[in-house]
C-alpha cells in the first residue's frame, strides 16, 4: 500500500513536470513549528473566459489569498479556459495530473458522471442555502468526494450564482404550448426537461449565444443572471426576460484537486485551501446577489426589457417533466440513483424546516 | 504618526501581558519567503456558554484551523463566557486589549452603539443571504468597520443562525390583543417592538429561561431555533412554538479584534483570520440549517409541541410597530440614522432582486 502510494506520487511528479515541486531550500529543523518546507508551484485551469466577472475573478482572488496565507509557498497560477486547457477538458486534465487544480461546475461532466449534476444544481432542486447545508453539514460533500474518488479528484464547493434567471425569449410564453418547437440554448437536465415540452435544446458556448439569438438561429436562451446577461448584451436580441431559473436554482461551482497533488500537501496548506475555498464560496454568492440587482434595474429601466414571471401552468408542467426526467436518469445509472436518493432524503427535511423559517419569513415581509 | 503607532503598540503589549508575543526564535533571513517570524499567543473570549453547540464549537473550530494554517504560530486560546471575561464585557475587554479577540453579536452592545443592531439583525430586516451580500459586497462591512473604529475594534462577520423561531408561549396567540400584558423574555429592538403591543419585555440570561418559564414567572420566551431550544428543554415549560422569528431573521455573529493586535499581525496571518472567519460564517449557518430540521421533527413528533405560524394580523401589526421603533431610534442617534439609511438603501434593491429570484423560486416549488 505504502509502496504503491509512493509510486503514484513519483508518477504524479513526472506528470506535472519537474519544476512544480521545489524544495524550499531550508535545512530540516530550522522551522520547528512549521512543517511545510517545500514550495509548490501549481496550475489551476478554469472553465471560464479570461476576466469573466465573479467566476474567473473569484478564482484569481482565491489563488492570491492562498499564496499570501502560505507565506508565498503555495503559488497557484490561474489559467482561463483555453489558455492552457480547453474548458471541457478541465476534469480530465486535473484527473490525470496535467494540472493540479480546476474550477468549473460538476454538471459539465454529466457525460462521464450523470450524478455530478446534483453537486451543482438540478431543476427544481435546492437553492444556495440548502445546497451549502447539505454539502457541509448534511453528508453531501462526503458523498461528492466518494463519487469523484475513482476519477482521482478531490472536490470542494467554491462559488454559487444564487437563483438564476429563466432565460431570454423572442416571444412571450403564455402557456406550455408556446414552448413547443422553440430552439433554445439550454444545457444538461434543464434541456432534457424542456425537450419533454417540445423544445429543441441546443448547446452553444457563451461566445456564440448573442449572435445566434440575434439572427434568430435560436429563439431563446438561458445564461446566468442580470449581471452577466447584461454584459452579454442579450437584451438587444430578445425582449422578454423570464424568471425564476427553475432549471438552476442555486448552482454550486466546484474546485477540483488532483488527489496525489492534494496528498503531497502538508496539512496546513490543505487547511488553507479548504478555508479559502469555503470563504470564496460565500464571497462569490454575495457578489452575485449584490451585482444582480443593479443590472436588473438597468435592464428594466434603461433597456426597457420586459421582466416576466413564467405562468403557473408552465412551471407546474415543467416540474412534472423534471420528476420524470430525474426518475428516468435514476433508472439508467446506479450512481445517479444513489445520489438522487441521498439528495431527496436531505431535501425533504430541509423543505420542512424552510417552510417555517425562510418561506414563512418571506411571507411575513409581504403580508 | 509612526511614533504614535509604535507607542500604541508598546502600550498594547503591556496590556496583553509579556507572554503573549513571543519571538519565534528564528534568525532573520532564514525564512526568506515567509515574513512571519514571530509567534503569537492570543486569547479569544466569547459570549457563549462552554460547549454551546455550533456557537462555541464553531469558534473553537476557527481557532484550531487558524493555528494549523499558521504553522502553529498564531495560537488562539478560546474562553467561554465567564471563564476569563463575563459575556457582556466582551466588547470592552477586546476594545481595551485585555484580550485580542472576542466572539458574540453586535446587538449585545446597543447600549453603547445603538447602530450595532444592524450588523446582527433588526426586526423584519434582511435574512442571512441578504446580510452577507450587504456586508461583503454592498458596503455593509466597510460601514461596520467605520462604526467600530472609535472603539478600537476590527469586526468580521462570523456565523449566522439563519431565521430564528418566534418563541415559546404558554397560551395561544390568536390576535394582537393576546400579546397584551404578557411577560416575555425578548431582548433588544424586538423587545421594544413587543412593548408597543403591550408586552412586558424581560431580560434573562440563557441559563435562567427554563425555570422562569416553567414557574410562570414569564409567559413566553424567544431563544434560538429548534436545535438549541430542544436542548434547553423549553418544550416542557410551554406548549406553543411560534414562527417565524420576525425579530431575528438571520442574525450575523461577530468576531472582533483589538485594532493594535490586528495591526501587529503580518499580512499573511490577517488573511488567514479573514478567510477562516468567512469560512466559519458559512459553516455555522449550514450547521444551523442542517440541525434545526431534525430537532423540529423531534419537537413535533416526540414532544407533541404545537408548531404554529403567527397570525397575519399579528405579523402586520408588529411590522408596523417595528417601523415606528426604528424611526424613533433614528431620531435619537445620528449614527443609528446613518446606518439605517445605508441598510435601507441596500435592502430596497435587494428586495427587488429577491422577489424575482428566491421568492419567485420558492413559490414555483409550492405551486
Element-level helix/strand string of chain A: HEEHEHEHHEEEHEHEHEEHHEHHH
CATH topology of the largest domain in chain A: D-Maltodextrin-Binding Protein, domain 2
Major interchain interface with per-chain residue totals: A-B, 85 and 85 residues
Oligomer: homodimer
Q: Total strand count of chain A, please?
A: 12
* CATH homologous superfamily classification of the largest domain in chain A: Bacterial extracellular solute-binding protein, family 7
Instruction: Please give the CATH class of the largest domain in chain A.
Output: Alpha Beta
Shape of chain A: globular
Number of helices of chain A: 13
Q: Approximately how much beta-strand content do the residues of chain A carry?
A: 15-25%
Total separate domains of chain A: 2
Helix fraction of chain A by DSSP (H/I, runs of at least 4): 40-55%
The radius of gyration computed from the alpha-carbon positions of chain A, rounded to a whole number of angstroms, is 22 Å
How does the major sheet of chain A shape up? 6 strands, mixed
Regions with little confidence, pLDDT below 50 for 5+ residues of chain A: 1-34
Cα distance spanning the termini of chain A: 63 Å
- Which architecture of the largest domain in chain A does the CATH hierarchy give at level 2? 3-Layer(aba) Sandwich
| Overall pLDDT metric of chain A | 91
Helix/strand/pairing category of chain A: alpha/beta
Amino acid at each position: 500500500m505504502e509502496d504503491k502510494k509512493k509510486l503514484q506520487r513519483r508518477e504524479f511528479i513526472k506528470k506535472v513536470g519537474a519544476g512544480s515541486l521545489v524544495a524550499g531550500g531550508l535545512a530540516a529543523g530550522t522551522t520547528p513549528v512549521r512543517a511545510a518546507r517545500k514550495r509548490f508551484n501549481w496550475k489551476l485551469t478554469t472553465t471560464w473566459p479570461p476576466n469573466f466577472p465573479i467566476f474567473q475573478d473569484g478564482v484569481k482572488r482565491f489563488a492570491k489569498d492562498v499564496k499570501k496565507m502560505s507565506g508565498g509557498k503555495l503559488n497557484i497560477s490561474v489559467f482561463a479556459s483555453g489558455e492552457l486547457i480547453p474548458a471541457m477538458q478541465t476534469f480530465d486534465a486535473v484527473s490525470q495530473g496535467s494540472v493540479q487544480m480546476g474550477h468549473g461546475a460538476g454538471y459539465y461532466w454529466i457525460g462521464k458522471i450523470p450524478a455530478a449534476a446534483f453537486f451543482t444544481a438540478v431543476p427544481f432542486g435546492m437553492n444556495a442555502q440548502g445546497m451549502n447545508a447539505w454539502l457541509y453539514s448534511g453528508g453531501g460533500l462526503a458523498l461528492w468526494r466518494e463519487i469523484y474518488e475513482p476519477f482521482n479528484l478531490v472536490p470542494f464547493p467554491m462559488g454559487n450564482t444564487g437563483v438564476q434567471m429563466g432565460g431570454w425569449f423572442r416571444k412571450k410564453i403564455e402557456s406550455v404550448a408556446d414552448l413547443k418547437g422553440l430552439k433554445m440554448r439550454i444545457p444538461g437536465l434543464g434541456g432534457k426537461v424542456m425537450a419533454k415540452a417540445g423544445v429543441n435544446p441546443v448547446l452553444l458556448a457563451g461566445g456564440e449565444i448573442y449572435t445566434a439569438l440575434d439572427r434568430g438561429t435560436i429563439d431563446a436562451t438561458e445564461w446566468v443572471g442580470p449581471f452577466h446577461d447584461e454584459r452579454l448584451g442579450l437584451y438587444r436580441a430578445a425582449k422578454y426576460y423570464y424568471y425564476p431559473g427553475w432549471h438552476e436554482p442555486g448552482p454550486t461551482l466546484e474546485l477540483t484537486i488532483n488527489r496525489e497533488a492534494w496528498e503531497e500537501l502538508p496539512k496546513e496548506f490543505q487547511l488553507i485551501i479548504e478555508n479559502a475555498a469555503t470563504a470564496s464560496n460565500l464571497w462569490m454568492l454575495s457578489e452575485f446577489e449584490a451585482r444582480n440587482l443593479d443590472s436588473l434595474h438597468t435592464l428594466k429601466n434603461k433597456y426597457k426589457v420586459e421582466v416576466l414571471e413564467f405562468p403557473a401552468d408552465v412551471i407546474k408542467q415543467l416540474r412534472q417533466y423534471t420528476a420524470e426526467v430525474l426518475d428516468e436518469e435514476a433508472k439508467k445509472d446506479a450512481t445517479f440513483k444513489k445520489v438522487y436518493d441521498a439528495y431527496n432524503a436531505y431535501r425533504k427535511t430541509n423543505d420542512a424546516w424552510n417552510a417555517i423559517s425562510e418561506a414563512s419569513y418571506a411571507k411575513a415581509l409581504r403580508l
